[in-house]
RNA sequence: GCCGACAUAGCUUAGUUGGUGGAGCGGCGGACUGUUAAUCCGCAGGUCGCAGGUUCGAGUCCUGCUGUCGGCGCCA
């Protein structure tokens, strides 16, 4: 057990009192009589001053030979100092707990980090398990934790029920090409792409539900926005339409930004993020634009685009240039979206859907909308698309027994982390990223 | 699936028109200091991704393969 934390020492909470620290050697330098060990734990780093005539020859020489990332236990006096750290520890006793073998020194060196600079080299990806303990990654993981916490608190404060769907599934949500197929006792199963269809099944029971769960997409995407395994925050709400769902989407994203300002402003600044920007994301309304207007804007900018096309990333990016905050795109043409989107009763060429596009080129972070909720409409839509009915019988049953208006959205948690942290790549936000070319370590 | 780059020590890299591969960091040995990515001196460490080819001679030129990175499409 630990009794003292470095974060408290550097905050001055322990000045002039005895502390017992446990952590890892971040840096070490010194001479025959005096040694400075920069000690790291999960809460920060602090300089520890070790004098030969205080700790004795044996302890001093042990520390002298201890390599970076050796784990140690230190006793000493925390003191304020006018040197650059503000606070340091005058060590009275030090013990190596887990040494590092000099024939295999810690491989993540300054030079390995220097070129990476946010991007990630093959070497750092291969040594991800060790890269996790570096400053930048630790900071990202703390921000990530707060994002997850914010999602839970947003929904729970509004009486949503957390609900879990299976990860092995038999059918697709989107087109089948992006499913991971897995052998399943002589049959085929797939890894889920979305919680949505199973959430709709529980909608008449729970009415307001959400989850944070992994989703899997076998896309050979090679972009800074894609993972094959990503964390998907999804919600489903009964008796609600596109508007209400969209209100929750904007509300959730603002709440995440606000939570980061409250809990992780130091971490955001250490990544070079401008807090004014996050404040703007936390307090602004997000504008809404219909698909048709987006097409007109694109045409006015001289972009080649035709009505009915889905908007790809290059076009989204041009649209987001006009906004300093996330914005919604709504009412896509029916032909560009799958059957579960409900056609707009006021103009059935469109569906009641929305995407939320993050600014700064981070792309789509939410996709959602109102579901096709009556039996006759869903059968008609499935037929129109030529989709086989059989795998969706359970989904259609939801409409056969007391269908009600409902909708929901899915939010890409890793993308939100990347955007708010200002990461160069979505990989930076997840401990062990999975993409089409990497499943290790 | 498509397009474009790259591959030299544990890491980051230099390597000229083809002529026996250098450095910084890290490690080891030593010196020295309330040091700040400490500094200084020395040592070890390389099948130049793999396989062919051209050449008297290939890290360098050519072909193929493998791996990685970046971009597009698809999407969260």
If you had to describe this structure to a student in words, what would you say it looks like?
- By secondary structure, this protein is of the alpha+beta class.
- It folds into two domains: 6-98, Nucleic acid-binding proteins (OB fold (Dihydrolipoamide Acetyltransferase, E2P), Beta Barrel), CATH 2.40.50.140; 135-429, BirA Bifunctional Protein, domain 2, CATH 3.30.930.
- Helix content is 34%, strand content 27%.
- The chain has 16 helices and 18 strands.
- It has helices spanning 6-10, 52-55, 57-64, 110-116, 122-126, 128-131, 135-157, 196-206, 242-263, 265-270, 275-283, 291-300, 313-320, 375-385, 393-400, 413-421; strands at 17-30, 34-41, 44-51, 71-80, 87-98, 161-162, 168-169, 181-184, 187-191, 208-216, 229-238, 288-290, 327-330, 343-344, 347-351, 353-358, 363-370, 406-412.
- The protein has an eight-stranded mixed beta sheet with strand order 6-10-11-18-17-16-13-12. A five-stranded mixed beta barrel has the order 1-2-3-5-4. A three-stranded antiparallel beta sheet has the order 7-9-8, with no helix packed on it.
- Strand 8 (181-184) and strand 9 form a beta hairpin.
- The longest helix has 23 residues, at 135-157.
- The protein binds one RNA strand of 76 nucleotides through strand 1, strand 2, helix 4, helix 5 and strand 11.
